[in-house]
DNA sequence: CTCCTTTTGTTGAAAATTCAACAGACTTTC
DNA sequence: GAAAGTCTGTTGAATTTTCAACAAAAGGAG
C-alpha cells in the first residue's frame, strides 16, 4: 500500500489523518486494490453497492445507460477522488449507475460498512472518516447542482457555454482543458454529438471561442 | 419548541436521538423558527449559506432561476425534511439556489457550524448529528441521480413517463399524486409547459395514462 | 353569487434537436 | 509504413421543442 501513500494523503476521505495512521488503518478497513484496462466496467449498474472506490491512478466515469442505449455521463473522477460513496453510504441494495475506466487505472476499494458500522472505539479516526464522508458528499451535491445548472439549459449552445464558463471560473483561466472527447461531452451535456460539433463550429466562426480538440479558449 | 416535537422526531437529522435530549439540544444548536407565506423566498440565491432548514409544516422548493428567468425546480421538501444542508456543510460562501415557500410554512433553522465545529465532547450526540447528516446527504445524492435519469431523456414524453414510473415504483402504486402543478412539473422535467400539457393529452388519448389535475394513473 | 386571478389546454409558426450517413483526420496495431 | 479502427465535422430531412397568444376552466375574494 505504501506506494499509494501520496495519492491517499490527498484523498478527502483521509483528511486530518496522519500518514502513519493511514497505513495502519487500511487493513482494518479491508482495503483492496485492483487495476483495470480502459473501458472496463468497474462497477455494474444493478449490482451490490457495498464498496466505495478511491482512484489511485488514471480516471473513471460514472455513467447511466438507459433502455435504448443512450448514455449519460454523470461525473468523472481522477486520482485521489472517491466514487460510489453515496450509494454505499445510503446502503442501497443495487447501484443505479455504472462506473467505467476512462483510461487504464488503479482503484482502491473499501467496504463502506467498515466505516459506517464498526464499533466507534475501535479506531480513534472512525469519527473523522464519517465527518470526511459527510464533507465529501456535501461537495458532490454541489457538483450535481452545477451539472443541473448546465443541463437545464434548453439549447446546445447555452449548455456548452454554461459548462465552459463554469469550468473557466473554476480554473481561473479562459483556457480550459476538458476531460471529455466530443461524444463524452455530448453525453455529459445531454445533447446530440453532431449537433454539438456543429454548434462548436458556429461559435468559432462567431469569434466567441477557440477550440482545438479538448482545449477550449473563451474569447 | 415542544409543539414541533413530533415533526422533529421524524427528521433524519435527529435519528437515534431521544426526545428528551432533542429538546435540550435545540438551544445549544441555536435553533430558531420562522413562518412564511406562500411564494416567499426563504433563502435567496447568492446569500450566505450558514443555515440548514427543517420544514416543520407546509412545503418548500429549491429552485434555480437563470439569467433569462427560466426556472428549474430541483427538489421539494415537506414536513420533517431538511434543506440547505449540502451548502452549509460544504461551507460555500454563497447559495447556488433559492428556497421558496411552496405553501404557507414554518421552518426551523440551525446554524450548521454548531454541528460541524463545536467541540465534539460538548454533547454526546454531536457525532450522531454528523452521522445523520452524512446519511441524509447520501440519500439526497440518490434523489439527484433519479432526477438526472428523468431529465436526461430527450423528449417530453420520455421525461414524463420516466418520472411517473419512478414515482409509481416509489409509492408502490399505479396511482400517483404529484406535488407539482403543470408549470412546476414542466420546470422539474425541464420542458415547455404547453408542450407538456399537449403530451399529457396525447398519452390520455392513447390510453397510456389517466390524469386529473395532479393525480395520475398509469394504465 | 359574481368578479378577478390563476391555471390549464390548444393552436400554429418558428427554431432547435435528433438522426443517419458519410468523408476526412487522427490513432493504433501489426 | 500500411491497414484498420476511431473520432470529428458536415449535411439534409424528419421530428420535437419552444414560443406567443388565446380561450376555457378552476379557484379565491369580497
Structural overview:
Two copies of one chain form a homodimer. Chain A is built from eight helices and eleven strands. The model of chain A has no long low-confidence stretch (mean pLDDT 93). The first copy, chain A, has two domains: 142 residues, Jelly Rolls (Sandwich); 66 residues, Arc Repressor Mutant, subunit A (Orthogonal Bundle). Chain A is of the alpha+beta class. In chain A, strand 10 and strand 11 form a beta hairpin. The structure holds a DNA duplex (30 and 30 nucleotides).
Largest sheet of chain A: 4 strands, antiparallel
| Physical arrangement of strands within the biggest beta sheet of chain A | 1-8-3-6
Q: State the oligomer.
A: homodimer
- Our Rg estimate of chain A from Cα atoms comes to 19 Å
CATH class of the largest domain in chain A: Mainly Beta
User: Under the CATH scheme, which architecture of the largest domain in chain A would be assigned?
Assistant: Sandwich
Question: Count of helical segments of chain A?
Answer: 8
Give the % helix of chain A. Answer: 25-40%
Amino acid at each position: 500500500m505504501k506506494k499509494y501513500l501520496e495519492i491517499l494523503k490527498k484523498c478527502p476521505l483521509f483528511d486530518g489523518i496522519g500518514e502513519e495512521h493511514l497505513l495502519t488503518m487500511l487493513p482494518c478497513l479491508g482495503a483492496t486494490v485492483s487495476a483495470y484496462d480502459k473501458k472496463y466496467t468497474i462497477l455494474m449498474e444493478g449490482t451490490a453497492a457495498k464498496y466505495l472506490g478511491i482512484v489511485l491512478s488514471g480516471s473513471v466515469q460514472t455513467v447511466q445507460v438507459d433502455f435504448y442505449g443512450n448514455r449519460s455521463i454523470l461525473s468523472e473522477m481522477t486520482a485521489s477522488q472517491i466514487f460510489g460513496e453515496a450509494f454505499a453510504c445510503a446502503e442501497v441494495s443495487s447501484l443505479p449507475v455504472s462506473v467505467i475506466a476512462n483510461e487504464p487505472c488503479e482503484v482502491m476499494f473499501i467496504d463502506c460498512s467498515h466505516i459506517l458500522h464498526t464499533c466507534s472505539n475501535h479506531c480513534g479516526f472512525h469519527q473523522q472518516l464519517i465527518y470526511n464522508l459527510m464533507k465529501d458528499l456535501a461537495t458532490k451535491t454541489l457538483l450535481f447542482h452545477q451539472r443541473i445548472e448546465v443541463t437545464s439549459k434548453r439549447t446546445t449552445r447555452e449548455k456548452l457555454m454554461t459548462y465552459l464558463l463554469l469550468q473557466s471560473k473554476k480554473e481561473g483561466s479562459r483556457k480550459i482543458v476538458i476531460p471529455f472527447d466530443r461524444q463524452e461531452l455530448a453525453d455529459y451535456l445531454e445533447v446530440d454529438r453532431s449537433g454539438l460539433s456543429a454548434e462548436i463550429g458556429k461559435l468559432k466562426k462567431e469569434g466567441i471561442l477557440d477550440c482545438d480538440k479538448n482545449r477550449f479558449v473563451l474569447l
